[in-house]
Design a protein that fits this description.
By secondary structure, this protein is of the alpha/beta class. It has a seven-stranded mixed sheet with strand order 17-18-16-15-19-20-21, sandwiched between helices. A six-stranded mixed sheet has the order 3-2-1-6-14-13, sandwiched between helices. The longest helix has 27 residues. The radius of gyration is 22 Å and the shape is globular.
């Protein structure tokens, strides 16, 4: 069987990449055609994305791939919640704003005053978090004229699909990140949006993962891309990552680990809780056997390490991730703890200083060195993962059996060891390229090369070599289960004492409302 190649465009919140993935009938083979950094910048009074850069680098990489490879299809995934507004002439109203901009918090506060917190979760099942699309749209409605100038809303991966094929639709997994889409009823919550001042006329059609959006058009439709189709994958990067997560053990949880850590369980629609105060219910990648939902929580993830690295580099100290991991491993565990989801850590900037300030304010030992800061982040993330595991178990009524960690964070074995020790669960690491492989896998299912998600996961498992860390292996020479339980209680008490609003009626710790 000759290998068939598809192009997976994967846009992360720190970098983008184009990955060529081929399937030889037994295994997947992949190579990165191009990887490029990007970041939001302050422009015209807001933190904004340079989508022109994203589009230009994506098209350049696809053009390069086409010079030596015949490509059957192209699909784009990316982070959720952020959106672009197009005018009637098809051009951008302005540069899309970033979910980390303060306008999101203003939009949340105004929306709560306008419709009430319960209304914001009644249909969508999304946790009330300031980054949600609905709060940016509400800010648009009350703070300026963006919506009056807009003819169409597209999530950012949808914008790239639009550029490649002219499609004017959004994909369901992306829509489910907005806080304005009813995942159960499979429709926009137009009543909520109307009450928040968002006109129905700008809402796009919602399509399923695997939808063929037509041929590639424009200057790219030549060479190895002649005849290529634009096949929409699970366009929310988390849903693509989960699609390629082996989940070999019944009851295993997924953890898509990158700038964000998204942790949860895959559940069938109509099963499990439709609403949970601590978790969001989002759409997963469906297949010909039906839809999948994701019951999950977002944790700040490696964003904290990323911002620390950037800040230290500004001060002249350049540390790569392996160096930071080594420095963290040399520090005593569980000495300093922070809440990774605290609002102080949302915006770019002096995150090391903010971590020290948080520790001082909450009675935690203040980490003085980069290694101590990195260890604080690792332990704090592991304890937050532990809390999410408990939340998923409480919501589903089933005890998780393992955690499958994928994405760039799966390479941080120190974090994996801490996670296994904190949760008492085996942690399986890999694939690193889960998002691109899930993107490509959904395209291959649509092309008839793979049967379904079960087939995709079997092929992914056969194509990688992963690491498995058992809880008993991590305890040697380190803190045991009792120490991790005491640390979890310590962190819960510190947060509850300072921010009592963050403890829900069940007494469980809930994260702040921004990511």
């Amino acid at each position: 069987m000759s290998a068939r190649t598809v192009a997976a465009v994967d846009l992360g919140a720190e970098s983008g990449r184009v990955v060529a993935v081929s399937f030889d009938g037994r295994r997947l083979h992949w190579r990165t055609v191009d990887r490029f950094p990007h970041a939001p910048t302050h422009r015209d009074g807001a933190l904004r994305w340079d989508v022109h850069h994203l589009l230009e680098r994506t098209e350049r990489a696809l053009g390069e791939l086409a010079t030596h490879t015949d490509v059957a299809s192209v699909g784009v995934d990316g982070w959720g919640v952020d959106y672009a507004l197009l005018g009637a002439d098809g051009t951008l109203v302005d540069r899309p704003t970033c979910y980390r901009d303060p306008r999101q918090r203003r939009g949340l506060d105004s929306a709560v005053r306008t419709v009430g917190r319960q209304r914001l979760t009644a249909a969508s099942g999304a946790r009330v978090e300031a980054i949600n699309t609905v709060f940016g749209l509400h800010a648009d409605a009350v703070e300026g004229d963006r919506l009056t100038r807009a003819d169409l809303l597209l999530m950012l991966p949808d914008l790239v699909h639009h550029r490649l094929s002219g499609t004017r639709a959004t994909e369901r997994t992306l829509a489910s990140t907005t806080g304005a889409y009813d995942t159960g009823a499979r429709r926009w919550d137009t009543g909520l949006l109307a009450d928040l001042g968002v006109p129905e006329r700008i809402l796009p059609e919602v399509v399923d993962a695997g939808t063929d959006s037509g041929p590639l058009t424009g200057d790219l439709a030549g060479g190895g891309l002649r005849g290529a189709r634009v096949v929409v994958p699970a366009a929310h990067d988390t849903a693509s990552a989960v699609a390629a997560t082996p989940l070999a053990a019944p009851g295993a949880l997924f953890c898509s680990s990158g700038t964000w850590s998204l942790i949860g369980a895959e559940v069938a629609p109509g099963t499990g809780p439709l609403r949970s105060p601590a978790l969001s219910r989002e759409a997963g990648a469906g297949d010909r056997h039906g839809d999948r939902d994701l019951l999950l929580r977002n944790v700040a993830g490696l964003w904290l390490l990323q911002e620390c690295r950037r800040w230290w580099a500004r001060e002249g100290l350049v540390l790569d991730y392996p160096a930071l991991a080594s420095l963290a491993a040399a520090e005593p565990p569980l000495r300093s703890l922070v809440d990774p989801d605290a609002e102080e850590f949302v915006a770019p900037g002096d995150v090391p200083g903010r971590i020290r300030a948080w520790c001082a304010a909450h009675g935690e030992p203040v980490p003085a060195t980069p290694g101590a800061v990195a260890r604080c982040i690792v332990d704090s993330l592991a304890l937050t993962y532990r809390a999410v595991v408990d939340e998923v178990a409480a919501a589903t009524g089933a005890a998780p059996t393992a955690i499958d960690v994928t994405g760039g964070g799966s390479q941080h074995l120190g974090l994996a060891r801490a996670t296994a020790a904190a949760t008492g669960l085996p942690v399986r690491c890999g694939p690193v390229e889960a998002t691109a492989l899930g993107n490509a896998g959904v395209q291959l299912i649509a092309l008839g090369e793979l049967r379904d998600l079960t087939d995709l996961r079997r092929v992914v498992a056969a194509s990688i070599e992963g690491h498995v860390l058992e809880p008993e292996d991590t305890a040697a020479g380190g803190p045991g289960a009792d120490a991790w339980a005491e640390a979890a209680d310590r962190l819960d008490r510190a947060v509850a004492a300072r921010e009592p609003r963050r403890v829900d009626p069940t007494g469980r710790l809930a994260t702040t409302e921004t990511r």
